[in-house]
Amino acid sequence: MEVDKMEENDWKYHGEGNKSLVVSHVQLSRVLRLLKYPAEDSENPPQTAEQAFRQIQNIVDFSSNVMSSLLGEKFIHSGEVVKLPLEFVRQLSIKVQHQRPAWRCDKVMDIYSGCALCLPNLTSPALHQPTHTPPLCIEIKPKCGFLPSTKHVSKDIKTKVCRFCMHQHYKVANGKWKRRSLYCPLDLFSGNRQRMHFAIRHLIEEPQNNFKIFKGGQCIYSSKEGSDDSLDMNSLLHHLRPYFLYGNNRINSHMTGKTVLNDFIQVLVNALMSGGGGGDGGEVTDRPGEGRSFCEASLFNKERIRHGSQGLPSDSVLFRILQTQMLDTLDIEGLYPLYRRLEQHLHDFPKERTRLQIDGPYNEAFLEKLQKCSTEDSVEDAAAKVHQYRVAMTAKDCSIMVALVPSGEEENDDEGLSRRLRLPAFSYSVSILDLDPKPFDSIARQLRLDQKIVSCYLRTGGALPKGSLPTLPGIFAAAERDDCTLLFHPM
Fold it and tell me: Which end of the chain is more exposed for a tag (fewer CB within 10 A), N or C?
């Protein structure tokens, strides 16, 4: 990619989050991630080009030096900072503006610094198998997969109902989403295939910001925030069906939509349970603290678990993410007093901010600080616990990208063996995205949000307004009426 020969017509709008906008190259498997500013700052950029460069370099360093060590190098693509011609960036900003969702336009693309983060485009991976079928790519934002322990929380409900399920009530009450998602992260992180299947099924029913499907780099399935549009399950089945018309002794034209979705979910679970490169997972590790792995708001019936296998393979992506999330040992309530103490110390001794690496640099010394956390009552220890919390928050907010490339063969699957059925074989790669460092100053805001979410849940008693529960699409409703063994295959 020659930076001095950049053409805005070679790039297209790909998506955006709260802090950055992403464009993808129309031919190369590359994306550029550009910073965003509040629209009111559009005439006067809030930071210099050097500060913008440092901000993006911090993202790269945090990903490659800190998160890569904790999550596993094989899952991480840190990318590199690039300096782009300003005229190219301005033209690109004009080109993509009309494709942006209206509710994101309170912020504008940074057209002043010329800095961007260049990354591989994981929605159209360059896996080696030559195939005429475009790869599928599934993006999952799994969120927090465990419950906090009792000694650090003031409200007992937090040890019984997970943050995601409580947050759903708050989002519906505030009109961010019309319907509640029945997905529960604790089911996905359980390592029990039935619970994982159940969790992914609910992600498909109500994807919100937590689930997207791409085909050949194009998004074919997702939700729009605040929208009442119903998802087109028939369109999704139309896209997925050709990937699952292998063997299984089925007459292809009579393969039911339910079967297609079950096979799709099963392949996805296999990828999430693998070591990330298509092989078998490592040793299965039991979940720490059994009481912390079931959420009372999940609709999964515990009686359905035929075998008590709870646990994730130790080299799987979900295990690594969960371990990193659990660096949050104090919950925001237990951490906040330490944060206030540290904040006061930095107010009294501003130069300590550099020594304690509050804003980076995110290097080996930073990683060592958070890993050497002791029980001493010192400023260093408070800083280490705050660093741990920030790293855990990044792991709670990351995305998993699973790329599936059909290999044209068939594979025996653990649960397929009992049915004498075969699944189509896929080569898969698993990656983790969205690994930005969380700002030190966001901790006070986190506490306020936590209090709002919990009080909203307690006020409603966990009940939702009428019409906010998802109506099951026809295909899942049909599956529900069948014997549940069709949905939850025997292990």
Answer: N
Q: How far is CA 475 from CA 52, 94, 260, in A?
A: 48, 41, 10
Say what the pTM is: 0.88
Cα–Cα nearest to 263, from 197, 184, 204, 195: 197
- Dist CA 36 CA 107 (whole Å): 6
Instruction: Find, among 58, 63, 25, 53, the residue nearest to 110 by Cα.
Output: 53
d(CA 148, CA 85): 48
Is residue 437 within 8 Å of 62, Cβ to Cβ? yes
Q: What six digits make up the tokens of 145?
A: 């997969």
Eight-state DSSP code of residue 24: E
DSSP label at 441? G
Host H or E run for residue 341: helix 331-348
Given this model, what pLDDT does residue 149 score? Answer: 85
Burial class (CB in 10 A: 0-12, 13-18, 19+), 314: middle
Q: Tell me 253's DSSP state.
A: G
Look-up of token digits 């063969």:
409
Q: Which residues pair with 433 in a beta bridge?
A: 399
Q: How far apart are alpha carbons 186 and 165 in whole angstroms?
A: 10
Distance CA 384, CA 440 (A): 12
Q: Is 305 helix (H, G, I), strand (E, B) or coil?
A: coil
**Which runs of E-coded beta strand occur in 17-145?**
20-25, 30-38, 80-83, 107-109, 115-120, 136-140
Could you tell me how many residues make up the chain?
491
Distance CA 29, CA 13 (A): 14
Task: Locate all alpha helices (DSSP H) within 10-83, ordered by sequence.
Answer: 49-61, 68-71
Distance CA(387)–CA(366), nearest Å, equals 8
Contact between 120 and 30 (Cβ < 8 Å): yes
Residue 396 has which token pair? 């709670």
* Tokens at 90, concatenated: 């301005």
- What digits encode the pLDDT tens for the residues 354-367? 999 999 999 999 99
**What's the pLDDT tens digit per position in 223-250?**
876 565 667 788 899 999 888 876 544 4
Placement of tokens 């026809």 in the chain: 474
Token couple for 175: 């009109």
Distance separating alpha carbons of residues 34 and 117, to the nearest angstrom: 7
For 175, other C-beta atoms within 10 Å of its C-beta total: 8
Q: Which of 57-66, 299-308, 468-477 has the lowest mean pLDDT?
A: 468-477
H and E: helices and strands count for the chain: 16, 13
